[in-house]
Amino acid sequence: MHAELVQERGGAHTGAAIEMHGIGKRFPGVIALEEVDLVLARGKVHALMGENGAGKSTLIKIMAGVYGRDAGSINIGGREVALRNPREALAEGIKVVFQEIALISEFTVAENIFLERHPVGRAGSIDWKKIRAESAALFERIGFDVDPAARTGDLPVSQQQMVEIARALAHEARIVVMDEPTSSLTPNEVALLFKVIRRLTDLGIAVLYVTHKLDEVFEIADTVTVLRDGRHISTRPIGEHTHDTLIQDMIGRRIDNLFPRSRGHAKGDIALSVKGVSTDAKLDDVSFEVRAGEVLGFFGLMGAGRTELAKAIVGFDPIRAGTIEVAGRPLKPHDTRTGAGLGIGLLTEDRKGEGLMLELSVQQNMSLAALGAFSRAGFVDETREKAAVQGFVDRFRVRTPSLNQLIKNLSGGNQQKVLLARWLMRGLKVIVVDEPTRGIDVGAKSEIFALLDRLANEGLAVVMMTSEMPELLGLSDRIAVMAEGRITAVFDRDAATQENILNAAIA
To answer: In order of start, what are the domains of the chain with their CATH numbers?
Structure first.
């Protein structure tokens, strides 16, 4: 297997694992890729970056055999290959760990690892003992302990990723592609994943790492390739990049201030007061206040209770004890209709599952929460509705060919702007944003940051739940830290450091 592969090459991880040259791909009315080159070296981590729509997903799907290429060549081991389907790609040693993990939740870990190639005993039956033993050996090789007999659906996302990586080793993969692998991981789980990635490169495996997160690229990557609008922009060793040059390659312009939050201006009256709130699910005696014009950031590791708090304070999840007031008015009855009427809205972390109506247009999605303002005698005044929506499209610079465009066809950043505008149409006092930049590229992130800063400066109270330390420190006026459903610390921005925030998160 991989150890023998390295030995044959004299113990040196040199040369190309795969070479893709002049790759082109067209869809009806769209040039997805044009003249794209990508060369992955054995035993190295190669990051692939670009804004949403840059062509990253199309390129890795061509590598995985999901899409056929329309132009260009792919070479592995000095010979050109076709990669006409995923089975051929796997046979060539290419394993893609997609963002949506493709495991059978009802199967055990071992069954998933050997799904395509179960070891068979003498009588022709599956050798279950051998499957479990070989699975355990694979986990030992990558330095991660997972029970081969565990039901896969019961595992956290981080361990399911390890199962996918073990599957790659079981197929003797020479190229492992990871698509946004840390989108649902805690900082500790990210550190463990990076340790496993380094184990893979020690085995001579080439790792293609697809992400939006700049800090991760500088920590784990040896080389980075940037795509923009379906074209190859640059391939450089990571040591030749700074954050600024990488952003400039990705979006074609400089971002002078990614976090524009101004400090020290006077805050207004208390906009949201939460006292002693507890829920059956997670929260335990949570109390805090946020003032008009303030950004209060919440941080916590996975399971700390941030999302549960976000849903409770807008009236979505029931509370067992405590009180919530918006601008001095109690949230009673405790439901979303009352919350919206008082002027509090939620930008959910799951924008596609809980926020957007994917088969409706930009206009229909944006005006959904404010139709009453455009209605007369039970009928919607479409002229007023359209004018209001167009105003927010212009104000927020939503990139859409028309207001009738289906929302599912917009990028993640533009979808997020539509959801934010939906709530502001109602006239808010407080906006709760849960992971506002999840799955959004750096260019769109800068625009979302600027919008939140602008809204706070206009007097809106912003409660921001995030697992991204840079945006927590860059946008918040104060930072509250949660662990096991409780607030364990509150820091003024000037006193907050990554170290004391993480210490409070594991308290």
So the answer is: 15-93+205-254 (3.40.50.300), 256-343+429-441+461-507 (3.40.50.300), 352-427 (no CATH)
